Amino acid sequence: MVPGGACWRGGVVPRGFKRWLSSSSCSPAPRVCVVGSGPAGFYTAQHILKHHGGAQVDIYEKLPVPFGLVRFGVAPDHPEVKNVINAFTQTARSERCAYYGNVTVGRDIKVAELRQAYHAVVLSYGAEDNRVLGIPGENLSGVYSAREFVGWYNGLPENRDLKPDLSCETALILGHGNVALDIARILLSPLSLLRKTDITDGSLAALACSKVKRVWLVGRRGPLQVAFTIKELREMINLPGARPVLNPADFTGLENAVKDAPRPRKRLTELMIKTALEKPGEKMLEAEAADPREWGLKFQRSPQEVLPTADGRRARGIRMALTRLEGSGDSAKAVPTGDVEELECGLVLSSIGYRSLPLDPAVPFDTQRGIIPNSSGRVEGVPGLYCSGWVKRGPTGVIITTMNDSFDTAQSVLEDLQVGALDVSTFREGFGAVESILRSRGVRPVSFSDWEKIDAAEVARGKAAGKPREKIVDPQEMLRLIGH
Fold this sequence. Notes:
By secondary structure, the protein is of the alpha/beta class.
């Protein structure tokens, strides 16, 4: 038996837990609460449930629907990345796991109240803001953060009314990461490809009327510092009907420079060089004549100002400082040379990173780094409080990075249960205590079976339109659908 009186499933006891399991005391089941139902939240829950046969885990989410950035961040034309939802669904259906959507922690329920109801509280609420450019003109019409633009085409409720102006021919994306490439691909993809995805109906209609046919991706540093990966770059290069425009001069001497670089960086650079030197084939020239679309990478340019139209309301272009690099590799710094360049564009998308926000005054927060100060996921100075995912380490990496990071935090929780740092001898009521607080505040949580009704409705609507699903973008409509 384990604390909580349940047997380990699968029969194999993880190394290091034998001494804990030999204890004859049968204390109450540890009740763990996870705040956030994206990959960080679900992976944390999954690991705790798998390695502690008695733990009960409740997952809280501010939206009625689960899965965070898997639903609202992964590009619509990357359905294979969303397959992790199947594993998360298995976790949520476990008899020792419960999901409570439509609950905003920090507003509907305080972290201190959760800490009274649970033995451990894990904050996995991600990064719900974006880094700002901090330059004149960034609030002009026609300037958007990548976060809100991605949220718009992926059906994130808060971005459903974005209505980006796509009436210009040239768009400029600031940033050289995978999100920047996602946006460029969505802007230039043939509608025939997008129609088969779960992109929202409203954004598909807007893209059908888009005049954008040229997309520049601009970075402060050089080709050796780009953050995107080879898979995403190859996908962009192979996008039907869109020609890559890379300046061979940007890659002079780089073949030698990457000889001893790690293999992923070497292959990525070689692909950029090959693309820069390649002549467009006949097929591409035919496509260009019919509908000339192109995209390109610009290096060593730092945005100084978004330039306004004559009436001062809209973006008409951007002024950039040319830079030179000091140092090499990932640590190279971009330093302005004193030269500037202006580029005409009516659409500016800033893809320079996401940012976490403080959730509750009771939780320590490092505003400089945008994270909760922690050690292996243990929140500094607050025993029993943990964090995982982007709010723990910053908004970097892919889903697998978050998985490993969340397992690390879950392991800290398990260790603290094992050595008695978390006192499970006192009974904690878990959701029972939270439910009465929420009821008194007029908040009705959404269960996982409620979500499955929403899911079924979305899939049915999608089927009628020849898509995997048609996302419902209005939370009120979601709630009406389940009779809330």
